[in-house]
């Protein structure tokens, strides 16, 4: 019983110290599982705090498992995507606990201009989990077909977030 109380106390203290977004100068790194129609892969991102509720960042994703229509294998350029993004970090605006942050934003990538909405929860000051959904608002090519659909549709990402 003494061990259980000690573990619960340590977890409670570590949760109380976690902070999802600290404002200007904050740096977050994230690694996640990219889930979309016709393929799954990995996404890596970094966000840099500009102010109390603003950050900018960069995202790179690569599809590891993809459908191969007609047995044709997609090239690297078909599987990869790179984006620059702007976030509004609104956890404190909505009165969330400091360990939580919700961040809507816009991104400009190699395939489209889009919007995203994400949520982070930090268990400790250095480690948390995140979930993020993004969708294109305007595609560079109006007639998206074949491999052009990769990274050019609704994408859901689930993964780990780190304070750097």
What do you see in this structure?
- The protein is mainly β and 164 residues long.
- It has one domain (2-163): Porin.
- It has helices at 2-17, 76-79; strands at residues 27-36, 39-49, 54-66, 80-88, 100-109, 112-122, 127-139, 155-163.
- The protein is globular, with a radius of gyration of 18 Å.
- It comes from Flavobacterium sedimenticola.
- Residues 1-20 form the signal peptide.
Order of helices and strands: HEEEHEEEEE
Return the CATH topology.
Porin
Question: What's the total helix number?
Answer: 2
The description of the largest β-sheet is:
8 strands, antiparallel, barrel
Structural class: mainly beta
Q: In percent, how helical is the residue content? A: 10-25%
Report the sheet-strand fraction: over 45%
Please name the CATH architecture. Answer: Beta Barrel
CATH class: Mainly Beta
Cα-atom radius of gyration = 18 Å
Number of strands: 8
Which stretches are poorly predicted, pLDDT < 50 over at least 5 residues?
A: 8-16
- Overall pLDDT level: 88
The overall number of domains is: 1
Strand order of the largest sheet: 1-2-3-4-5-6-7-8
**Termini distance?**
36 Å
Name the shape in a single word. globular
